[in-house]
Amino acid sequence: MDYSNILMETDGDILKITINRPEKLNALNKQTLVELNHVLLDAFENAKVGGIIITGSGEKAFVAGADISEFANYNQEEGENLARDGQYKVFDLIANAQKPIIAAINGFALGGGLELALACHIRFASENAKLGLPEVSLGLIPGYGGTQRLTQVVGKGKAMELILSANMIDADEASKMGLVNKVCALDQLLPEAKSLLKTILSRSPKAVAAAILAVNAAVSTNGFATEIVEFGKCFGNEDFKEGVSAFLGKRKPNFK
Ligand code: COA
After folding, report:
1. Tally of domains in the chain
2. C-alpha 66 to ligand 1 mean position (Å)
């Protein structure tokens, strides 16, 4: 497959996947999700790949969310399918991977971008990173597992605050609440992520895979299905039309 929205680079047994749409702050459009699905499945099959780092292109954004322009006219069913498909083909694939995956958050990680980082097993962030789930400001809720995985990582209280307020936090605050494992200078982000991944890859691969399974089992939940249905319902609301047209028209939404 020819990839137009992601870049790949290998360093020994580490595969770096870079989401590469910097002009759109690396927003996840359909094509990017298809490419991610493909490259991940390939990497899982490839014995030469021990672990993966996911990052964003440029110095401004990791991923600024799902591509809002693509779903602006979706109805409830299309919204629900968007969430289910994405969760199944990319986000759950990452979370359940049998090889360790680290998110190197090099700037904005918003909406689907933070959900992508949350699906990874470990998160490192650069000092300039800004994180948040702004969906309710668009009349939506997170649909790629964010309501579940943010709650698992930072606890219900902080998850409620971040999701209901749609506020962004900086890397330090994210680190204090355990949302990111480590904060690094931007130029140290990838070396630091690689260094931890190399340590993990020096351990027993079978035991690492088993540990991922067991840790995931500790936080398995049925909430993902609820999120998909509630995400879909949002697409039937006037608030969604107002929120999305406000973003695309570069103005503040006026929710009734
Ligand atoms: N979907 C589609 N396009 C997006 C996007 C997204 N999630 N995030 C950013 N972009 C696009 C912008 O529309 C803009 O495109 P244009 O140059 O063709 O107008 C480009 O990326 C640059 O973004 P811009 O908003 O001009 O940068 P900024 O520095 O002023 O603001 C953000 C940065 C991250 C605060 C702002 O882009 C933003 O709020 N993005 C949406 C975040 C979001 O709600 N994500 C959740 C989606 S479910």
Report:
1. 1
2. 10
